[in-house]
Amino acid sequence: xxxxxxxxxxxxxxxxKVYEDDDVLAILDxxxxxxxxxxxxxxxxxxxxxxxPSDIVHKVYDVAQRIAQAEVSVLGAKGVNILTNVGEAAxxxxxxxxxxxxxxxxGGEGGFQISMKAQDTSKMDLPLLAHTIxxxxx
Length: 138
Ligand SMILES: [Zn+2]
What we know:
Elements: H1 4-9, E1 17-20, E2 24-28, E3 38-42, H2 54-74, E4 79-83, E5 98-104, H3 126-134
Antiparallel strand pairs: 1-2, 2-3, 3-5, 4-5
The structure holds zinc ion.
């Protein structure tokens, strides 16, 4: 069964297009968490960032950067969050690789929040943690 982004790419569901080329489609997110909230989607189906070939990842992020630059220029955004969620545990709601471009404005308008709270690291072995990750890098 096709996910909602495959249906949009195939033209089965309408969307409001911001950008399109052979590999990448960018559309306005229907929720508009903030004004200009855009989804940058690989046209070919990949389940998430983790399984997408690096050349496609680069193309999607290149488009995300250009859209973010445009939103700062023409929408007056004072900042932008660039975000991809991987897996349900991280809030990925559609199992098709996509990047959120979420322009931010002073005054806190809109429905997007992000918070990162520091944890107590005194009982963590950070060098061991770094080694565990780095030895797995390909
Ligand atoms: Zn898909």
